[in-house]
Amino acid sequence: MSDPTSPPGPKSVQDGPPEPDPRAADLQEEADRLQAEMEEARPPHGGPISQVAAALVALAVGVFGAVGSYALGLGRLTQPGPGLWPFAISVVIVVLSVVLLLTGRHLRDTERFSRSSLQTAAGVLSLVGLAVLLPVIGFEIPSLLLMFVWLRLLGKESWRSSIVISFGAVAAFYVLFVLLLQIPLPRLV
Amino acid sequence: MDISPILEGFGVVLEPANLLYCLIGVIIGMLIGVLPGLGPGATIAILLPITYSIEPVSAIIMLAGIFYGAQYGGTITSVLLRLPGEASSVVTVFDGFAMAKQGRAGTALGIAAIGSFIGGTVSIIGLTLVAPVVAGFALDFGPPEYAALGILGVLLISSVGNGNKLKAIIAAGIGLLIATVGRDTFTGAERFTFGSLNLAEGIDFIPIAMGLFGLSEILYNLEERHNRVHAPAKVGNVWPSRGDLRQSGGAIGRGSVIGFVLGVLPGGGAVLSSLAAYAFEKRRAKRPERFGQGAVEGVAAPETANNAAATSSFIPLLTLGIPANATMALMFGALLIQGIQPGPQLVTEHPDVFWGVINSMYIGNILLLIMSIPMVGLFVRILRVRPAIMAPITVLITLLGAYTVRNQVYDIFLVIAFGVLGYLMKKFGFEPGPLVLAFVLGSMIESSARQGLLILGGDPVGFLTRPISGTVFALIVVVLLWPLIRGALRRKTSHRVEEKISS
Amino acid sequence: MTILVGYLPTPEGEAAVDAGLREGALRGERVIIVNSPRRGAPVDERKIDDAAGAELLRRARESGVDAELRQPLHDDDLAETFETLVEETGASLIVIGLRHRSLVGKFIMGSEAQRILMESTIPVLTVKAAL
Known about the structure:
The complex is a heterotrimer of chains A (189), B (503) and C (131).
Chain A: H1 22-39, H2 48-72, H3 84-103, H4 117-137, H5 140-154, H6 159-180
Helix pairs in contact in A: 2-3, 4-5, 5-6
Chain B: H1 4-13, H2 16-34, H3 40-53, H4 56-81, H5 92-101, H6 105-138, H7 143-160, H8 165-179, E1 182-183, E2 190-191, H9 197-200, H10 205-222, H11 242-264, H12 269-284, H13 297-312, H14 314-320, H15 326-337, H16 346-349, H17 351-382, H18 387-406, H19 409-427, H20 432-455, H21 461-465, H22 467-502
Antiparallel strand pairs in B: 1-2
Helix pairs in contact in B: 1-17, 2-4, 2-17, 3-4, 3-10, 3-15, 3-18, 4-5, 4-6, 4-13, 4-15, 4-17, 5-6, 5-13, 6-11, 6-13, 6-14, 6-17, 7-8, 7-20, 7-22, 8-20, 10-18, 10-19, 10-20, 11-12, 11-13, 12-13, 15-20, 18-19
Chain C: E1 2-6, H1 11-27, E2 30-34, H2 50-62, E3 67-70, H3 78-89, E4 93-98, H4 103-109, H5 112-119, E5 124-128
């Protein structure tokens, strides 16, 4: 979801004095309210700890990039080395992360992890499982398992419809990828 | 102006295969736009592997179809359910949903379709006229100009986008850093490869886009968010009455112009223009209090404008090679995959692509109009599909699709890794869009900057003294300082309001 | 005491409401009309809108029954949703409509009515649509 209110939109198309239009402000408010309503479904925000953690991770990436690119050699401006450009970016990341660390404690745009985040974790695990099994036993069985896990465990579909939809979808994939498009997917046989 | 390439472009579009791809794109776009959860960006990302195996022109025509099809799909949910599928349909909700409550949902959707068609068409005509001129102007640009433009593009998208600007720019920085992974083209040195052969080739655009835009969205939606179920809405008559048309005619005309102009600006062109068009209509209306109560202009203006803007946002991509938003970054990537470098040379070197894409939009808009009005009922039915059933199917398409690009399991792991990264970014308030965009522009900016340094004899001040790159850098400074400027302006106006109240 | 009536906008659902209201008037008990849509999809054709809900309550008032409409979401567990409501309200009877299903249809889709019948701890009255 994006925030339609951030740029001072209406002003740029109106001629006349750049006085803010009270109605335009109303509109922004209305858009804000709608946005807030849509955000309701979001879990509660994560608080200062997650903000600090996010900034620290960004900082770590920046420091890592700076050290790594310094090792590559910066060269001179007349003859830039391979590390100059990544070093410049890393420095920007470091500076901005520090600013974020200092000023961003009270932002409310992070989301707390909840029990349902475990669903996402389980989903990711199943994806990794597919990637590991794919070259070993072909795509059919891993795909079937993935479909079933997502439908039954993550989607809370009934046993019956999980089985029926899994088989149907994998059969459709087989027809589409293997028979029609003849893509060389690893196969069972 | 020589119009023969334009006509040849129509020849390209009217080939049956391309017409078919256009149709497929528009249908997919509309379907996905209706379904909550996956945005047009995610859809285009997931379907990127397909573009690998088809002609460049057809690929871009299909992706463009998805893009503007999705714009209209989002309108359907805004009007019927008060759920804007796309950010650019948020303002449509005010009057669209009010009309639906009065039993005029069909009229709202019909007007939106007609407005979208007119706005889109006006914008394409503008695109046809303006794009070659801009491209011609940009032909004189050297590396310093491109470096400056690239940086400006990244900054604008980071700062005009949603959410925290600081986080967006950090994300963009990380995208630039990821773009440096692999062998340096100037010195041959391996950067951040950790001895891995896979990484030495650099990281491919497809897995990044599929992971950050596609998979991350699916993972994010796994944490149940859709806890509201609506009763089916009645659409009613879709054909607007002559009175409705007369009433919204002006709004459609003005919306087209606003959309075209604002769409060219990098950042949220479609979002910004829909908001601006709505505000403009409300301001000049004789009875502004009608807005929000089901005024047909309140639907016509933003819907026309967002479609016009979606179309004109192709201008910076096709003429300067600078994507104006995250979706355009995907188009950029898709063109690069095909070995086509978007930029001012495009119109001369690949006129079939340039004009094929532009002219396909005429056809796409006609298809959109033909399909949307009679098929609204069908699209409304799609809303009954449970995301729990769609999710594993999309995931499988994503992972198997990623594999098919190079037949390497490594690519599946990359998609998963970037999917997790995107998910975590969203959880921590970072938008993946700037990262992807910066990644796409990264190598261009770096090589232009380095070539620029060579041209200028290692003197970075030269970037500022060349007239065009200097201007662009001045703009960069303005963009960077904009939050401060705006803050100052706000403070001033709020003072003024207080004075008014107290006096 | 209360009576729970399972309602969907179908002939079977109408029959269930008719029977439930009759039963409520007879026993002098309160009726809770349960219109439970499936969680997940943005739109469920089984969910009724506010106008239709008001109409149901008007019908209840006409039959002189004190009625209430509830629209809880369910996953793959409509029977459990009913069981929770039974515990919460101390209901004495569930009224649901039954429709004819082919064997294959029943195998693929399952039968929610059957599960309610088997899992319910209180008497269940099933009705068929008026012919």
